[in-house]
Protein: ribonuclease T2
Organism: Penicillium arizonense
Amino acid sequence: MFQFNPSKGMLALAAMNLITGTTANLKTCASSSGFSCQSSSTTPTCCFNYPGGAFLQTQFWDTDPVTGPSNSWTIHGLWPDNCDGTYEANCDSSRAYTNITEILQAQDRSDLVSYMDKYWVDINGDNESFWEHEWGKHGTCINTIEPSCYTGYESQEEVGDYFQKTVDLFKGLDTYKALAAAGITPSNSKTYTAGAIKAALAKVHDGAEVYISCSSGKLNQVWYFFNVQGNIIDGKYEAVDSLTSSACSKSGIKYVPKN
């Protein structure tokens, strides 16, 4: 799914436009189906994401308290956006499951759970509740992974697919390495410009502009935006510019270490 690019010195999504194959039992989508947010269609189908057609792979840099490894950002989630910065939330209360760990383990995804426990972590130490929140608020609003879109659907199958896809995207968007390759490393004394940070991250996002967030002048979030052709699990992802304007200062941004 990913290829190593020696010129960038890190894992990158191969051209960010490859079809990312999985073993999901979703209905087959024609390669001619349009990209989300780029079609005039307003009809959601199992092969067309609507209204949440833009997808954000979002990441945290938590330092107070610290979460995750000192040399890696952590996962926030995978969110559908209505192509304009607005979004639907908590779309299906009947599928707002409160046992994500059990669901994943029952699907023989224990390795996925272990990875999530390291890289998809809650600031208060309650990973399970965090995962439940992300699935209930965002996952249930993705129309191309509704149960009716599966062939031979097995209960809660879409839950495992959603978390696996989010992790796969995260693995191909190594924010820490992308910044380090541009000389942007955690420091208690150095500061950086927003332009330099965005330029470094655009190199792993097919040149598309990312969204950065700051808290008290410190870099703490990155959002990568995509449009998708087909369903979100094994569809074709295309990197697109951020739909959200950053409130970070243009200069003097701190990127403090995880002490």
Notes: The chain has one domain: 47-240. The helical segments are 100-106, 110-119, 127-137, 157-171, 175-181, 194-202. Residues 47-240 form a domain with the Ribonuclease Rh; Chain A fold (CATH 3.90.730.10).
